[in-house]
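seq as requested:
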Amino acid sequence: MLQTPANPGGLPLSVFDGFRQAYLADRAQFFLDVASGPFFGYNRPGAKVSEGNIRAWWTQGMQTGFKNAYDCIKAFSETDFTEDLKKFDVPTLIIHGDDDQIVPIGAAAMLSSKLVPGATLKIYKGGSHSLGDTSREQLNADLLAFARA
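struct tokens:
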């Protein structure tokens, strides 16, 4: 996800440095802010907010090891999986929400679907980052259909 010469469409390092700073400043608030806003798309007009989802995600975040969660920011933002994706040799389904505010669709699903040979790409209109919570019925149906094919 990091912007590099090999990935010019990525996000600048300053974005991830901001995540780290917010995490270190107030870990509990960091998880609450992410959950109540971009993770589920609850910051969008007309969003149906689930306090349960927010609390569950916050709880999961707070149960992680402090250093582990901090180091995770580097791992998810700076690891380049390009060569790994090119080696896939099994049927692969890539699903992404077109309103994912956490992982940009262009630098993730769109690129991955071109790198993985024969990949099937499904894009959920209005889909957030947490499709397993916000689009679970569609996601489960698509996963079952793919597995049965």
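Strands lie at 93-97, 120-124.
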